[in-house]
Amino acid sequence: MRDGRVVGEGFHTYDGLRHAEIIALEAAGKNARGATLYVNLEPCCHTGRTGPCTRALISGGVRRVVAAMPDPNPAVSGRGFKELRAAGIPVDCSCTSGSSEEARRLNEAFAWWVRRHRPLVTLKTGMTLDGSLVLPKSPNGHQSRWITSEISRAEVQRMRHASDAIMTGIGTILADDPLLTDRTGLPRRRPILRVVLDSLLRLSPKAQVVRSAQGDVLVFTCASLSGVRAKQLSARGLEICRVRPRRGRPDLAAVLDELGRREILSVLLEAGPLLNQAALQADLVEKVRLFYAPVLVGLGGSLPGLPSRKRAGSLPIRELSHLRTEAFGRDFAVEGYLRDVYRNR
Questions:
Q1: Which residues have C-beta within 8 Å of that of residue 243, sequence separation ≥ 6?
Q2: CA 140 and chain centroid, separation
Q3: The one catalytic residue among 21, 42, 83, 270
Q4: Which residues, at least 6 apart from 203, have a Cβ–Cβ distance to it below 8 Å?
Q5: pLDDT, tens digit, for every residue of 273-308?
Q6: Active-site residue 9, yes or no?
Q7: How far is C-alpha 207 from the geometric centre of its chain's CA atoms?
């Protein structure tokens, strides 16, 4: 910003290996000198996948920097600000402002990954008011596929667009045959990764997720990679990854470790009650978002992590923090956190 007008702006691009500050400087050109930079995260001061943005800002003659929040990486937090100030560039970082809270939400997946080297997991599900994940069949035998409204489903697509990966279990694939794609039509920094947990490799080559695969489907299994089904799926462009078993199923901690190694920052868990329960029991969910439809079906008791009331005692009671509710047409969503993603615990 210079003389009250925007002279350049930029957004981080994954493949381009350039941070937003560099793109904005290039867009501003000569007008960057004497301008104020507004950025949602402290400019980096080290060389990693990219060079240090602080040096580029100093060289470009930026007069002032306003940042919404410091870098969540404890190894570098504050160092970028220190380098800018040492060069005579004032830095304003008001960590109590509304923009800071918005920036924290925007950067929460990166904050979690940079501290824990695992993706931030958000459990999403839709249900009736009495806790059912499925609707009963009508008298003619027809069963509706959707519990929530079209408006809610559009919001789920927005959640997919904001995620690096969608993860589900083979049970959901066999029951619903979903595509698991981002259908917003908005540009992405890289294709969304579709992750399927399939302990025995029951995934059919006819499944939509297989037929639509373009190097964006990763299957975790406990089965042999030399079997016929593994070879069939590999030939169709799927990547099959064998991980250690835990109670006969792919170990979720090992799965998330591998996704973190691949720099997957965020995972949207869209699964059935068994996988939801396993993730909650293993304490591997950071955030939940539950969409409720104003419907009662008399089948209550299927909470997002529980197949039935009989299993309720197997999960500890945990209170959500930073609760938010939001209406989506006739539906409403409840969102909350199971842990502070900015604290290394």
A1: 220, 221, 222, 250, 251, 254, 255, 258
A2: 39
A3: 21
A4: 170, 173, 196, 209, 210, 219, 229, 233
A5: 999 999 999 999 999 999 999 988 875 554 454 454
A6: no
A7: 24
Q: What is the 3-state secondary structure (H, E, C) of the chain?
A: CECCECCCCCCCECCCCECHHHHHHHHHHHHHCCCEEEECCCCCCCCCCCCCHHHHHHHCCCCEEEECCCCCCCCCCCHHHHHHHHCCCCEECCCCCHHHHHHHHHCHHHHHHHHHCCCEEEEEEEEECCCCCCCCCCCCCCCCCCCCCHHHHHHHHHHHHCCCEEEEEHHHHHHHCCCCCCCCCCCCCCCCEEEEECCCCCCCCCCHHHHCCCCCEEEEECCCCCCHHHHHHHHCCCEEEECCEECCEECHHHHHHHHHHCCCCEEEECCCHHHHHHHHHCCCCCEEEEEEECCCCCCCCCCCCCCCHHHHHHCCCCCCEEEEEEEECCEEEEEEECCCCCCCC
Q: For the segment 114-165, what is each residue's pLDDT rounded down to a tens digit?
A: 999 999 999 999 999 988 887 777 666 565 678 899 999 999 999 999 999 9
Question: Residue 344 pLDDT > 60, yes or no?
Answer: no
Q: Backbone phi, then psi, for 45, in 5-degree steps? A: -130, 20
Radius of gyration of the chain (CA): 23
Q: Measure the CA–CA gap between 105 and 14, rounded to whole angstroms.
A: 19
Asked whether 53 and 80 are in contact (CB, 8 A), the reply is yes
Burial of 184: CB neighbours in 10 Å, binned 0-12, 13-18, 19+? middle
- Residue 185 backbone dihedrals phi, psi, to 5 degrees: 80, 5
* Residue 97: count of CB within 10 angstroms of its CB: 13
Q: Which two tokens stand for residue 294?
A: 């104003």
pLDDT at 14 over 60: no
Q: Tens digits of per-residue pLDDT, 229-256?
A: 999 999 999 999 999 999 899 999 999 9
pTM of structure: 0.87
Cα separation, 127 vs 304, in Å, equals 8
